[in-house]
Specification:
Length: 293
């Protein structure tokens, strides 16, 4: 819908043939529903008889429950490059379609002039900040996998011997779309690091995700010095002093660090990181040698 602008008015068009003028009242009368009283008027959205308690209109009409403004006025304007044309408007200036005295002029206008084309969408300015925000939105929508760590030995670690941690590495994720300014935005994410907290107070270490392999090739390995025990064992068993003072199992935390980048048909630009963690409990025992005679 084209709304009126300052200076938009109704201008008379060339007089149509006499036959059209004679047919206008007949056409208007035929359009009204049978039995309608003089309160029925033709509106841009249908025939309104709301004053008589009935209406064939599909839009907003006087007396209707919808408080919105209907397309009531037929106005004309000079469209750039297209000349004089008509459009419906909810506000004046223009020909009031609710007044029967304007019926002939409205039909003549509709017959004599073309409809105004729909206004073009305003040009969209896509700033760098907008692109970065959109790239982050895409990055956060990716199904960023968390690790699924496996430890060896699988059920219980052994003090003084290395335990190995392995996990599968997810593939790269990517997405592309056309922006409102018709440039193509591409976003790509990949796991660039695996952070491992062995749970015993030792420093968190960063590993190449591709190096998290099973024994014996894996790079993520750690040797525990204290076994983990239940509170009863720590308090009542003769070897309770060899246990970790508080833990029944070590909370081994593994985090995939996902790094994203984006581009607009040129060089890749680093975007940032998102972490996806996982934690597994790992019991550690000790093996004691016994002298036999």
């Amino acid at each position: 819908m084209i709304h009126p602008r300052p200076g938009d008015t109704f201008r008379a068009v060339k007089t149509a043939p006499l036959l059209l003028l004679l047919l206008v009242p007949v056409a208007l009368a035929a359009a009204l529903p049978a039995g309608a009283d003089e309160g029925c008027v033709i509106t841009p959205t249908g025939i309104d008889c709301s004053a008589a308690g009935s209406s064939t209109s599909t839009g907003t009409t006087p007396g209707g429950a919808d408080p919105g403004l209907p397309l009531r006025y037929l106005a004309t304007t000079d469209h750039p490059g297209g000349g004089r044309c008509w459009f419906w408007s909810p506000t004046p200036p223009g020909l009031d379609s609710w007044s029967t005295t304007n019926d002939q002029a409205i039909l003549l206008t509709l017959w004599g002039l073309p409809e105004c084309p729909a206004p073009e969408a305003p040009a969209v300015t896509v700033s760098t900040e907008w692109v970065v925000a959109r790239a982050w939105e895409i990055f956060r929508s990716f199904p960023l996998a968390a690790p699924h760590p496996l430890l060896q030995p699988p059920e219980h670690g052994i003090t003084g011997l290395p335990s190995y941690l392995s996990t599968s590495q997810p593939g790269h994720l990517s997405y592309g779309e056309i922006l409102p300014d018709e440039r193509r935005l591409e976003v790509e994410a990949r796991v660039t690091a695996a952070l491992v907290d062995w749970g015993d107070g030792s420093p968190v270490l960063s590993y190449d995700p591709a190096a998290l392999l099973p024994y014996p090739a894996g790079a993520a390995r750690h040797t525990y010095l204290l076994k983990t025990c239940s509170p009863d064992y720590r308090a009542g068993h003769p070897s309770g002093a060899n246990c970790h003072p508080t833990l029944e199992a070590y909370p081994v935390a593994v985090t995939f660090r996902w790094t994203a980048r984006y581009r607009l048909g040129g060089q890749w630009v680093e975007l940032g990181d998102l972490d996806r963690p996982a934690v597994v409990s790992y019991d550690v025992d000790e093996v004691l040698g016994v002298l036999r005679p």
